[in-house]
């Protein structure tokens, strides 16, 4: 059990990391094309207070977008807003509190957003955590599963009617789910989504990122079937030097530092694929893709399993207290 649930996910995850680093050693970061102005359009970026979320929020605001940063760190949120405004961006930026580890907090954020009566053109599900020790959220869910996946599942579904209303043929609303190459090492354990049997932080992180890809494909299918003007894509930013690695074991931290300096991407480079999926003209009408380094890439074989997609969707509705549609 330990071998299969702890050691194997750990080795698979580090193997994924090595592959990404080798790629980054020989390939430059993706360069964004010229992006269209976004004046009058509205975006929500979860976890936009630092790292790639902040870089994404800054870039979208520089295009004239009204950006709402949703996060659980108020001080960091205020500082992010000041930082973006001081950079002389074109758009409006604000921070609204939302803790993705609490379903109630997500619902309160949605209520607050609805009360504003704003449209929503871009939703970037970026917030995340990695390799936290075994912990439960206030709702009793495993931390990675709740924060990286289930909170975003509830947020997206709760905002879907606004996204549908805000999109048009030729100018669809866009949902961008920030996944990771670690999803290739992931397994979704439908019998034990909360990983109670034998906890591995590596396995839990990889599962949450695979769940996001399964969710992306299933939701896109629903949008296409219903003829709704909304597209959904998953993006993979590569390995990026951010606070995400703060929970690594101390030995791994020490080894990471020199490697990160030379081979990791900067937050702005990492955010470029997210920004591309969120606003590039080339991505208009394009959905159900896994985008890496600005290109459509094949995701893990498991992620295309439509039965697993549907099963996860059904279970997620139950867990998040949503009615299945
Ligand atoms: N850094 C990498 O190498 C890398 C690689 C692949 C994917 N990713 C993904 O990119 C995304 C952004 O990560 P990053 O690298 O910029 O890390 P980061 O730690 O700098 O940013 C994470 C963001 O999530 C927010 N967050 C954390 N807990 C939250 C909660 N409970 N509620 C709301 N927001 C919360 C943080 O406040 C922060 O703004 C994550 O989803 C991560 O899994 C990162």
From TrEMBL:
Key words of the record: Oxidoreductase
GO terms, molecular function: oxidoreductase activity
Segment forming the signal sequence: none
Cited Gene3D superfamilies: NAD(P)-binding Rossmann-like Domain (3.40.50.720)
InterPro entries linked: NAD(P)-bd_dom_sf, Sc_DH/Rdtase_CS, SDR_fam
Pfam families named among the record's database cross-references: adh_short
Annotated family: Belongs to the short-chain dehydrogenases/reductases (SDR) family.
Name this protein carries in UniProt: Dehydrogenase/reductase (SDR family) X-linked
Taxonomic source organism: Seriola lalandi dorsalis
């Amino acid at each position: 059990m330990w071998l299969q649930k702890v050691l194997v996910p750990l080795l698979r995850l580090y193997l994924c990391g090595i592959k990404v680093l080798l790629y980054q050693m020989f390939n430059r970061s993706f360069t964004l094309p010229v992006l269209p102005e976004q004046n009058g359009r509205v975006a929500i970026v979860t976890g936009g207070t630092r790292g790639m979320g902040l870089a994404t929020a800054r870039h979208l605001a520089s295009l004239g977008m009204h950006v709402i940063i949703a996060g659980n760190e108020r001080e960091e949120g205020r500082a992010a807003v000041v930082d973006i405004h001081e950079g002389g961006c074109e758009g409006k930026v604000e921070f609204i509190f939302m803790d993705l580890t609490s379903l109630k907090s997500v619902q309160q954020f949605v209520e607050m957003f609805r009360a504003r009566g704003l449209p929503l053109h871009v939703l970037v599900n970026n917030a995340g955590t990695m390799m936290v020790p075994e912990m439960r959220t206030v709702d009793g869910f495993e931390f990675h599963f709740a924060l990286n996946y289930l909170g975003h599942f509830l947020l997206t579904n709760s905002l879907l009617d606004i996204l549908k209303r805000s999109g048009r043929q030729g100018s669809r609303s866009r949902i961008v789910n920030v996944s990771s190459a670690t999803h290739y090492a992931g397994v979704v354990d439908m019998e034990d989504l909360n990983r109670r049997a034998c906890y591995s932080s590596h396995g839990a992180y990889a599962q949450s990122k695979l769940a996001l890809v399964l969710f992306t494909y299933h939701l896109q299918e629903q949008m296409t079937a219903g003829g709704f003007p909304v597209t959904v894509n998953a993006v993979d930013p590569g390995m990026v030097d951010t606070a995400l690695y703060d929970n690594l074991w101390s030995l791994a931290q020490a080894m990471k530092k020199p490697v990160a300096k030379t081979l990791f991407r900067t937050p702005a480079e990492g955010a470029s694929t997210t920004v591309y999926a969120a606003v590039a003209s080339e991505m208009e009408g394009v959905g159900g893709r896994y985008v890496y380094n600005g290109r459509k890439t094949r995701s893990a074989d498991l992620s295309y399993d439509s039965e697993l997609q549907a099963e996860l969707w059904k279970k997620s509705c139950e867990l998040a207290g949503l009615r299945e549609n």
